[in-house]
Design a protein that fits this description.
Layout (H helix, E strand, L loop, with lengths): L1 H6 L34 H5 L20 H10 L5 H4 L6 H16 L1 H14 L3 E3 L16 H9 L3 H6 L2 H8 L12 H11 L5 E3 L4 H8 L3 H26 L1 H36 L2 E6 L2 E6 L8 E5 L7 E13 L1 H4 L4 E3 L6 E2 L4 E13 L5 H8 L9 H33 L19 H22 L3 H19 L2 E3 L2 H6 L5 E4 L11 E7 L2 E3 L10 H13 L4 E4 L6 E4 L2 H12 L4 H6 L1 E10 L4 E8 L4 E8 H6 L1 E5 L5 E3 L4 H13 L2 E11 L8 H6 L7 E10 L6 H10 L3 E5 L4 H11 L13 E3 H6 L2 H8 L4 E3 L3 H13 L4 E5 L5 H6 L2 E5 L5 H6 L2 E3 L4 H43 L6 H20 L22 H28 L7 H28 L14 H20 L1 H4 L6 H12 L1 H9 L8 H25 L1
Parallel strand pairs: 11-23, 11-26, 19-22, 23-25, 24-25, 26-27, 27-28
Antiparallel strand pairs: 1-2, 3-4, 5-9, 6-7, 6-8, 6-9, 10-28, 12-13, 12-22, 14-15, 16-17, 17-18, 18-21, 19-20, 21-22
Helix pairs in contact: 5-15, 11-13, 12-13, 12-17, 13-18, 13-34, 16-17, 16-18, 16-33, 17-34, 18-33, 18-34, 24-27, 29-30, 33-34, 33-35, 33-36, 34-36, 34-37, 35-36, 35-40, 36-37, 36-39
Amino acid sequence: MASNDLNNGMFQQPSGNTNNHSPNNHRYHRHHFHDEEAAGGPGSAKFGDYESSGDPFDIPQTKNASLETLKRWRQAALVLNASRRFRYTLDLKREEEKEQRRRMIRSHAQVIRAAVLFKQAGENQIVIGPSATPLTPTGEYGIGLEQLVSITRDHNISALQDYGGVKGLSQLLKTNLEKGITEDETYLIKRKNSFGSNTYPRKKGRSFLRFLWEAWQDLTLIILIVAAVVSLALGIKTEGVKEGWYDGGSIAFAVFLVIIVTAVSDYRQSLQFQNLNDEKRNIQVEVIRDGRTVKISIFDVVVGDVVPLKIGDQVAADGIVITGHSLAIDESSMTGESKIVHKDHKAPFLMAGCKVADGFGTMLVTGVGINTEWGLLMASISEDTGEETPLQVRLNGVATFIGIVGLSVAVFVLIILLVRYFTGHSKNPDGSTQYVHGVTSASKVVDGVIKIFTVAVTIVVVAVPEGLPLAVTLTLAYSMRKMMADKALVRRLSACETMGSATTICSDKTGTLTLNQMTVVEAYVGKKNINPPDESSQLHSVVSSLLIEGIAQNTTGNVFLSKDGVGVEVSGSPTEKAILSWAVKLGMSFDLARSESMILQVFPFNSEKKRGGVAVKLNDSEVHIHWKGAAEIVLSACTGYLDSNGCLQSIEEEKEFFKAAINDMAVRSLRCVAIAYRSYELDKVPADEENLAQWALPEDDLVLLAIVGIKDPCRPGVKDAVNVCQKAGVKVRMVTGDNLQTAKAIALECGILTSIEDSTEHNIIEGRVFREYAEKEREQIAMKVTVMGRSSPNDKLLLVQALRKGGEVVAVTGDGTNDAPALHEADIGLSMGIQGTEVAKESSDIIILDDNFASVVKVVRWGRSVYANIQKFIQFQLTVNVAALTINVVAAVSSGEVPLNAVQLLWVNLIMDTLGALALATEPPTDHLMHRTPVGRREPLVTNIMWRNLLIQAVYQVAVLLVLNFAGLSILRLNSQEREHAVDVKNSLIFNAFVLCQIFNEFNARKPDEINVFSGVTKNRLFMSIVGITFVLQVLIIEFLGKFTSTVKLNWKQWVISIVIAIISWPLAVLGKLIPVPATPVSYYFTRPIQRCRAPIQRWRAAGTAM
């Protein structure tokens, strides 16, 4: 297990998984996600396949790991301070309690709400989120808070009808159902005062005192405090208060210093996580105010707001449906039942926290904050930031292994020192024997034993690297904060780390590689190319009126007067906005066009079918069915077209012309959208509402009205970003729903395809073709795919699964609700902050706030930086561990004395654990990181380069300091001085040189594989300040705190000797880096025999389980 824990890379994935059970709907694809067994990374094929080792720290993918797996590694870890070590891991008990809490709230919502209100009023322990105001109902509205809450909470349809339905309720709430409420701040505050704000009570984060208490829980520190108290009592008893308190007091002071520094570091980390959690909660939602669609924070939603709903949105508050078309809600987050609930005027009640699974509509907000079940649930569940990452688990394995070695060394030293003491081989600094049988007093024996015991315990403190797993959290917290500035919000800690190992990025085209600023630049009406495309005089009135009718009704967008009253504003998805803007230029009056017909049924745009439709009834009872979608798909359903004179013509002979027009636009990287319609007999339309809701819109025998080409330019800098990825060994693949020719043109423009010659059969493929291959063939073809066009969300999922089975570490971007399975399945799911739906964001690991591919590349840099920083810290810490343990063990065995005493070792531990982690774990990423290949899943944590560096430094330190320990008196020419003082000077110089070696070696650790270790050092102010503070404190310790640390002042020559010994580590590191290292990891030679030994045991266990 030892070498496995220390050296093994990302191991094979456990088969255990926890599936997320959620509805399986034909439009809302939330599959049962399976945790595929990942076959190694780039490093695995090279060094042979590791069998599943049964190692509890063998969890390469914590994203979907089972609770049993997570419990197993916790139980296996050697831990001195559980509350600190496991603070930032998943709270397993809380996860189990969460479901029980949700069920209780469903049953007892009214009682819990009363309790929360009472607690909120009576306690100061609870803080209210942004803009919270006390509930002071006024008589301004025709309905009171309690009446309104009870209607929604009890789903009381008869009470709603008594108030006149949603229309009557809106009048009581002074809301215009079409234009919403006014944006006036005073008016909004009145609503908040009457009905509450959309916030819920949240417990304050842990106080600094709590962190102090947790830092104190370390078993070894408690033992040291007890030892210090006993030593203090004995010292005062034998030597008096003036001299006797130093030994015990100095240990106690050193322990308290360790506790305080640890607590301060941990407290700062917790504040960073708290800020990130606030960002995650602050969802942006659309509301209609003053007739305009505006985006506001979810915390600013008030009762009476009119909220548009579309697929993938989170329901921001409790409410009642105003209008809805195929509106379906996933209520599993509140009810726990995995089914989609359809909403209409018969079932109009909407619960906050649920997701829109299908369709679109609008709702009237009737309950906010703790007046909703979601608010009560959020108020009762304290925020859990815990979540383990693969690196955290691996480092717990490393810490456990080092801890076992350290514990063994400490016991060995304890036995040696005790034997030497009681056999009379231990000498005082003046040369006298410490213990003489029958002569030495009992108090002196106890004092001597305590000193020996204290040294042994302190060795354990230094040897068990409690700070190692926490260094991951430290570097992740730092990286997450910095990534926010780089427009990336990390939702799942492990993703930040896994991104450094990404070998492929499957990126969307629209909005990620392109600007998402769409405009219609070309239009074919009939066979005529309208130039310019918005020249309405070139259109026949019949064609123009049908186009305007179809565009106005078959949309989820909106057109409204701008704030200044001059011109119009358009809202909706970028494609909708482009087409609506084109129609406005053609002379469309949006509100008038919508008022001239009534919507009967809607088929919302579907990314599987690539089109959306609407059936409308005109004032003369004529029925039109309008379709809009991917040009070649809509074209294939057309049997006729309207020419420029408004006459109906057969399309059969002209289909090739239209296909050529589409192809011509596509090769110029235009998105092609076709608009078509057909007439329908009114008597064939289902008369009753129930059948009408189930009516499938006819999608054949269509008449083509227009084909438009929409330009969406490439983002500036995207070509450079793609180039950086490819140089870093990360393959960029484009997965888009667009036409294959459009996708190919954009891929060439972005540098994903370098030349036309790259467009080979499997390199560029349609989603339909890819999904038809057998599974094994798909896995082979997936590795070649660079561009996938006309792909459905399911095709993206199949591609991700195939790539992961092929050993790739896959990052996927997605923005739609149907992208959720692929985002969940990928190693790293990246959702879009602007265009992404809430469902996509919840399924993702990182949110790209500006939807920009360049930000994805920055995330890769930060991911690699996390891994590199941890490796720097490991190299630094192992060097200190090896040197400190070796020096004390050799000295203890040979002379019965340890040159580094308890207080000195605690100071070294502080430099190494807390300050070292702060200095090295917060190094910013460099361009050098992007010149390497990705770190494979199974690559060793301690590389050959690191072994070389740390062994050179440790051997040098041990050799020099042991020479000083045994021959220091003559080398330093101290023989002529009094022996006790001479030994103190020698030991002080050893301690000083040892600490300075660590300070200078921190620079070496910054750049494990570069000659120049000082490049960029001045930019990292934290590193420079920590090194500076450590050095100043060391000077103070030696020169002024000798009584505490059992040291004496050194003269300037001895300081020069100490600095020279330390500074030699720099040229030594340069020379060391010229020594080549083998390509095969050293750990490979140790792990293979262990794997072979374990294999029969595993087979035996498997056979036993099968029986």
